[in-house]
Amino acid sequence: MQPGRTCLAIILAAGEGTRMKSTRPKVLHEMAGRSLLGHALAAVSAAGADSLVVVIGPDRADVAAEARRLAPQARIVVQAERKGTAHAVLAARESLAEGHGDVLVAFADTPLVRSETFAGLRGALHRGAGVAALGFEARDPTGYGRFVTRDGQLEAIVEHKDADAATRAITLCNAGLMALDGKHALTILEAIGNTNAQNEYYLTDAVEVGRRQGLTTVALIAPEAEVQGVNDRAQLAAAEADFQKRRRLEAMAAGATLVAPETVFFSHDTRIGRDVLIEPNVVFGPGVSVADGAVIHAFSHLEGACVGANATIGPYARLRPGADLAEGTKVGNFVEIKAAKIGEGVKVNHLTYIGDAEVGANANIGAGTITCNYDGFFKSKTIIGEGAFIGSNSALVAPVTIGAGAYVGSGSVITRDVPPDALAVARGRQIERQGWAAAFRAAARARKAAV
Ligand code: UD1
Ligand code: CA
C-alpha cells in the first residue's frame, strides 16, 4: 500500500431486497452477529478506507441509522431513483469531487469479501491501473457481467443481458466490486451512458470508458465463495456457513483446539487465545473474548463476555453480556452469569445465577446460589468479598454485601449485609422429635387396616 494515499469507499446499499420476504431491508439482516452492511463497512475500513459513503434508497431511515451507529463518520447519501450501479455511485458525487487517492466501490449485500481483497484492488491502482475490477470463475455465469480480457488486460465488462452467445460462454464473471483511481473516478463515472438492454447506468462500463481515456484496466480474481451475494434467506444461510468455516480455520490456525469444529459458531468479533479448548456445540454471540488456556466445555453459550486465562466454563454454561471472568475461574454446569465481575480463582460450579454482582477472588459459590437482583422495577447489586463461602441453595437479596471471608449457611435467604469473617444463617431452625416417624407410621397403618 502506498503510504499517505487516501481512500474513499462507497458502499451501495440502495437495494430493495424483495427476495428476502422481510419487513427489514436486506442489508440489515445479520451474518455472524453483524448486519451485512456492517461486514462491508468493516472490510473496507480494514483495507484503509478513511472516508466512507453509504448510498441508501429513499425512506430508509433504518439503514441510515445502522450506518451511523457503525460508522459515525460516514456520509450517508440517498439515491432517489434506481438507475443503475454507476448512477448509485454518483450519488456520492460530492465526496468523489474531494479528490481522494483511491476510490473503492463495494456492495452492502456481499458480506464475505475480505479486507485483503479490497487492499489488493487498491494495490493494483498503486501499480498504475486506472480501474481494477474483481472477478471470479462462476460455476453458473448466468446473470453476471462477463469479463472480456485480452493479453491479461481487462477490455470490457459486458452485462449478461447485453451479451452475445460468444460472450455468454465466458465464465470469468464480475463480482461487482471495483477500485478507481481517484484522479479519474468522477470523469469516468460521468462519461458512462445508459444505452443498454436495461437503460441503466452501469458501473461496469467504467472499464471501457477508462480504456478510452487511456487508462490501464485490470482484473483481479477472487474465489467464488468470497464474492457470493445475499439475495434470499437460503443465500444468507450459505454465507453464514462459509463465514463459520473460515472463522473455525482461523481459530485453529491461531492455536485453539476445536474438537468438532462444525458444531462451534463464532461471531464476527470473537477473540480466541492460544491453547483454548472448545468442546462441541458451543455458540459465541457478539463481543466475546477468551484468553489463553481456557476450556469451554460442551453446550455453552457466551455473549458479551470476557473469559480469563485458564478459566473453565460449562458444560451447559451461559455467559451473558458483562460477564467478566478473571484468570482461573471455574464456572460449571447450568450456571448463568450476567453483568458480573468474577475474581481470580472463584468457583461457581453448579446451578447458579449470578447477575449484577462482584465476586472477590477465591470465593466459593455453592450449588443453587441465586442473586436476587430484580424486584420488578430496579436491578440491584450483590457484592461478595474475597474468599467468602456461600452455602448451597442460598438466595442473596440485592442490594447486599457479603464481607470477605464470611460464611453463608446453606439454604439462607440473605437480606442484610454480612460482616467480613462472620457466619450468617437465615433459614428456619431445625427441630427433631424422637420416635415421631415410627409413631406416625404405626397410627397410619392401624387406620388403613380399619377401612
Ligand atoms: C451487478 C453487476 C454485474 C455483476 C453483479 C454481481 C453492474 C451493472 N452489474 O449486477 O456485472 O456480475 O453485480 O453480483 O454493476 N444498486 C444500487 N442502485 C442501483 C442499482 C444497484 O444501489 O440503482 C446496488 C444494489 O443494491 C446492489 C448492487 O448495487 O447492492 C448491485 O446491484 P444489482 O442490481 O444487484 O446488480 P446486478 O444486476 O446483479
Ligand atoms: Ca445482484
Structural class: alpha/beta
**Poorly predicted tracts of residues:** none
Bound molecules: uridine-diphosphate-N-acetylglucosamine, calcium ion
What about the largest sheet?
Answer: 11 strands, parallel
Number of helix segments? 10
End-to-end distance, in Å? 97 Å
Strand content: 25-35%
Give the proportion of residues in helices.
Answer: 10-25%
Characterize the overall form.
elongated
> How big is the Rg?
31 Å
Q: Could you tell me the number of beta strands?
A: 35
Question: How confident overall, as mean pLDDT?
Answer: 97
Characterize the structure shown.
This protein has about 450 residues and is of the alpha/beta class. It is about 20% helix and about 30% strand. The chain is built from ten helices and 35 strands. The strands form six sheets. Strands 13, 15, 16, 18, 19, 21, 22, 24, 26, 29 and 32 form an eleven-stranded parallel β-sheet that branches. A ten-stranded parallel β-sheet has the order 12-14-17-20-23-25-27-30-33-35, covered by helices on one side. The longest helix is centred in the middle third of the chain and has 21 residues, at about 235-255. The chain binds uridine-diphosphate-N-acetylglucosamine and calcium ion. Uridine-diphosphate-N-acetylglucosamine binds near residues 85, 159 and 229.
